[in-house]
Amino acid sequence: MSYECILTELRGSGERKTGLITLNRPKQLNALNDQLMDELGQALLAFDADDGVGCIVLTGSERAFAAGADIPTMAPHDFMSAFKTGLISKNWETILQVRKPVIAAVGGFALGGGCELAMMCDFIIAADSAKFGQPEIKLGIIPGAGGTQRLPRAVGKSKAMDLLLTARMMDAAEAESAGLVARVVPADKLLDEALAAAETINGFSAPSVALIKELVHQAFQGPLSDGVKIERRYFHALFGTADQREGMDAFMNKRKPEFKHR
Ligand SMILES: CCCCCCCCCCCCC[C@H](O)CC(=O)SCCNC(=O)CCNC(=O)[C@H](O)C(C)(C)COP(=O)(O)OP(=O)(O)OC[C@H]1O[C@@H](n2cnc3c(N)ncnc32)[C@H](O)[C@@H]1OP(=O)(O)O
């Protein structure tokens, strides 16, 4: 499949590869327009459906992961046109349908919709050059793709309010200490580190990987007691897989497991 606003390729040396998606509107700092998000949705769903793909890595350019929704696209709208069209691509939620891990490799600016997109991924590895923010208030609007909901859950109420109300950016170190980012790496090592993390995950049992992703997202949905109950059932269920037998046999026989991903 050829795209205009993104680049896609398969990376990795193992049986299960990593689907690498690079946002590719560098002149506009990867601003998210309809075409980019429609292409991103297609690429995400294609990698998710490919049994040869274990993980997906989403990245941008050195200067910007994404500087937000495309402002010239939004500017002409009024309430009714925004309300009727949903304003930006129907694909806003597509990334949330993906069952495989999506790692955001963020260098440079991740602002507005760019920060929201990164927060929709399963975890963020940031370059030391990364800057995060939700500066929508400067445009006379507010975040529209989960920024006011996911940011407080990631960094706490006070820091989220500070970032949302002052429109200031936070650098990679602050983002990591606040809990938004899993780890910070040198900018020139960002993609290597993200692909290495994906390669590690690709080697583990696919049912375990999928259930960990599903259960961590469940932790934000309901009461702890419900989440623990659901986790316990999935824990028991994995004892019905060949990979559980392979994983425990490999440990007891002091050898590397060869998971069959079932
Ligand atoms: C399939 C699943 C998809 C899931 C998608 C999930 C996300 C949903 C996406 C929709 C979200 C909608 C709701 C969202 O909350 C709303 C927003 O995002 S509003 C926009 C928020 N962002 C901003 O306000 C940042 C705007 N940009 C800047 O402040 C500055 O550009 C900068 C980033 C601080 C960099 O400044 P400089 O280094 O000085 O560089 P320039 O300003 O000269 O920029 C270079 C070049 O890029 C163009 N550009 C930058 N940002 C945008 C943008 N957001 N839209 C369009 N174009 C942008 C800028 O105009 C310059 O272009 P040039 O003038 O040279 O032609």
From TrEMBL:
<dbReference type="Pfam" id="PF00378">
    <property type="entry name" value="ECH_1"/>
</dbReference>
<dbReference type="GO" id="GO:0006635">
    <property type="term" value="P:fatty acid beta-oxidation"/>
</dbReference>
<dbReference type="GO" id="GO:0004300">
    <property type="term" value="F:enoyl-CoA hydratase activity"/>
</dbReference>
<comment type="similarity">
    <text>Belongs to the enoyl-CoA hydratase/isomerase family.</text>
</comment>
<protein>
    <recommendedName>
        <fullName>enoyl-CoA hydratase</fullName>
        <ecNumber>4.2.1.17</ecNumber>
    </recommendedName>
</protein>
<dbReference type="InterPro" id="IPR001753">
    <property type="entry name" value="Enoyl-CoA_hydra/iso"/>
</dbReference>
<keyword id="KW-0443">Lipid metabolism</keyword>
<keyword id="KW-0276">Fatty acid metabolism</keyword>
<comment type="function">
    <text>Could possibly oxidize fatty acids using specific components.</text>
</comment>
<dbReference type="InterPro" id="IPR029045">
    <property type="entry name" value="ClpP/crotonase-like_dom_sf"/>
</dbReference>
<keyword id="KW-0456">Lyase</keyword>
<dbReference type="InterPro" id="IPR014748">
    <property type="entry name" value="Enoyl-CoA_hydra_C"/>
</dbReference>
